[in-house]
Design goal:
alpha/beta, four-stranded mixed β-sheet, three-stranded mixed β-sheet, VOC_core, VOC family protein, Glyas_Bleomycin-R_OHBP_Dase, single chain
Length: 125
């Protein structure tokens, strides 16, 4: 049996807003409600289930995106005035070219440290 991640819970004071932000920025289908969650389907049956938490704990979520989508997503972030950074500590503005691809970090409305990257770590030439 192969093991795949099915879902994880994302803490948010406003699950609908947080889920909508993520879906819009990444170009994913609109979120839907399932029980107490606002669900964003990411890929291959994996979902991020946004749950109401008054004071969320910051988490890191990284998304592997195709090369041709990286610029599109970065453009959506620029349109929304969301700064991007080359490093997880948000010290260097812009994006990186680690592992022969591109990567950028940005904050979600809840304060989660999100990342888009075009190559998995350690896969570069």
């Amino acid at each position: 049996m192969s093991i795949e991640l099915n879902h994880t819970i994302v803490e948010s004071p406003d699950p609908d807003a947080g889920a909508a932000f993520l879906a819009e920025v990444l170009g994913l289908p609109a979120p839907y409600h399932f029980g107490p969650f606002t669900v964003v389907e990411v890929a291959h049956g994996t979902s991020l289930d946004f749950m109401t938490v008054a004071e969320p704990h910051s988490q890191h979520y990284a998304f592997l995106v195709p090369d041709d989508e990286f610029g599109v997503i970065a453009g959506r972030l620029r349109e929304r005035g969301v700064p991007t950074f080359a490093d997880p500590g948000h010290r260097r503005p812009g994006h990186n070219t680690d592992d022969g691809g591109q990567g950028a970090y940005f904050d979600s409305p809840e304060g989660h440290n999100l990342e888009i990257l075009t190559r998995p770590y350690g896969s570069g030439s």
